[in-house]
Amino acid sequence: MGRPGLVTGPPPAVAAVRVAVRRALPDDGLVWVACSGGADSLALAGALAFVGQRAGHRIGLVTVDHQLQEGSGSRAAALAAWAASRFDVVRVETVTVRPGAGPEDAARTARYGALSRVADETGATAVLLGHTRDDQAETVLLALARGSGPRGISGMPARRGVYVRPLLDLPRSVVRAGCAGLDLEPWEDPHNTDARFARSRVRELVDTLGEKVVANLANTAALVAADCAELDAQADRFPLGTSLAVAELAALGPALRSRVLRRWALSLGVPGGALTKGHLDALDALVTAWRGQGPTQLPGGVPVARRAGRIVAPPVGE
């Protein structure tokens, strides 16, 4: 029992989550929270319900039913019922996960497709995602294991377009304590502990490494992201056209040149998701290792060749 007249605040973990959400909110507009019913996203939803209402924001909760597990529809409906009295608008988005590079990637693609569709349809100013500092560390380790470049190692951004990750600086332990402090009952996705999935195996490694290593990995992601942003900004200042001068490209450092070539390829209509390091290396070879080789074929049926001191697309005279 507290002393008479003593005003006590929420538990520290609850306060930490609420503060993170308050700092991330846009000035106005509809704000969605993407909630799976797991501890992290449920803590985020609970914090938005509290902070958003007091700030006068219009808030919504959206949950995506991937239909990958028995009873997923019932769980989505139960979550929507919980949210009905706490949010201005609630949506359940049912998606079909199509086979792709792997089940995790396919589910992620379907999920973000649904979230983007909801945001576009409603003119939302933000969609809050429940990724924590531990998730960031897992992303960095996965990128390292896959041999990703700086873009992969830079991890998830706190903000990108409509997507906002308020909890990215908070440890998972704090966020889950916040969920418990709000007396919320999360659903634990069995895929999170299923060794068939790379993310779950990395999660076990992260738990073993401990909080200090998790913080260091997250800091590494932030440092690499800052470097990438600066190089991207420099690349954006390089003028593009249907052709590029080889001499101007050769004068650039490799890190900056690769970004210019990538940006140029995208401007030609090459699908970003299909553009690999191998494609960029082939483009770079037209600049730095010219031996009279023929055109380089980029995804989307875009051929690029070197002609008269320039790289051009489509090749002149062919």
Automatic annotation (TrEMBL):
Note what the entry says on domains.
The N-terminal region contains the highly conserved SGGXDS motif, predicted to be a P-loop motif involved in ATP binding.
- Residues annotated as domain tRNA(Ile)-lysidine/2-thiocytidine synthase N-terminal: 31-204
Query: Which residues are recorded as binding ATP?
Result: 36-41
Species of origin reads Longispora fulva
Annotated localization: Cytoplasm
Biological process terms from the Gene Ontology for this record are:
tRNA modification
Source organism's superkingdom?
A: Bacteria
Protein's gene: tilS
User: InterPro entries of this UniProt entry?
Assistant: Rossmann-like_a/b/a_fold, TilS/TtcA_N, tRNA_Ile_lys_synt, tRNA_Ile_lys_synt_N, tRNA_Ile_lys_synt_subst-bd
Q: Where is each tRNA(Ile)-lysidine synthase substrate-binding domain found?
A: 244-311
Q: What is its EC number?
A: 6.3.4.19
UniProt xrefs under PANTHER family: TRNA(ILE)-LYSIDINE SYNTHASE-RELATED
**Function according to Swiss-Prot or TrEMBL:** Ligates lysine onto the cytidine present at position 34 of the AUA codon-specific tRNA(Ile) that contains the anticodon CAU, in an ATP-dependent manner. Cytidine is converted to lysidine, thus changing the amino acid specificity of the tRNA from methionine to isoleucine.
Entries under SUPFAM superfamilies matching the protein: Adenine nucleotide alpha hydrolases-like, MesJ substrate recognition domain-like
Question: Mind telling me which GO cellular component terms the entry cites?
Answer: cytoplasm
Q: What is its main location?
A: cytoplasm
Listed GO MF terms: ATP binding; tRNA(Ile)-lysidine synthase activity
Q: What is this protein called?
A: tRNA(Ile)-lysidine synthase
Give the reactions, separated by semicolons, that this protein catalyses.
Answer: cytidine(34) in tRNA(Ile2) + L-lysine + ATP = lysidine(34) in tRNA(Ile2) + AMP + diphosphate + H(+)
